[in-house]
Amino acid sequence: MPRNSRRDGRGGCAPKSLGYRASAVSVEEMETLADEVTLLQSDMFRAGWNARAAQMPGMRKIPAPAPGQTVNGVVVPE
User: Fold this and answer.
1) What string of H, E and C letters represents the secondary structure of 7-63?
2) Which of 34, 42, 49, 65 is most solvent-facing, going by the fewest CB within 10 Å?
3) What is the pTM of this model?
4) What is the pLDDT of residues 3-61, one digit of tens each?
5) Which residues pair with 70 in a beta bridge?
6) Contacts of 35 (CB under 8 A, 6+ apart)
């Protein structure tokens, strides 16, 4: 058997890193992040819609949600 090979088939190479680090996240932090992503998706859709509405006569714009209003099951923060 060659000197740089192993029986597990990995050879003599060191394990490679993808460059990402992970840390423990609580359930509350995950839920908060999910809510923020939901609001961001809604904002992005509204921005795209309103950009197109500016070019199309008769197409109505979507107004921004008011603080405290529910958007896709998430309450908009104040």
Assistant:
1) CCCCCCCCCCCCCCCCCCCCHHHHHHHHHHHHHHHHHHHHHHHHHHHCCCCCCCCCC
2) 34
3) 0.63
4) 555 565 555 666 677 788 888 889 999 999 999 999 999 999 999 999 999 999 999 99
5) 75
6) 74
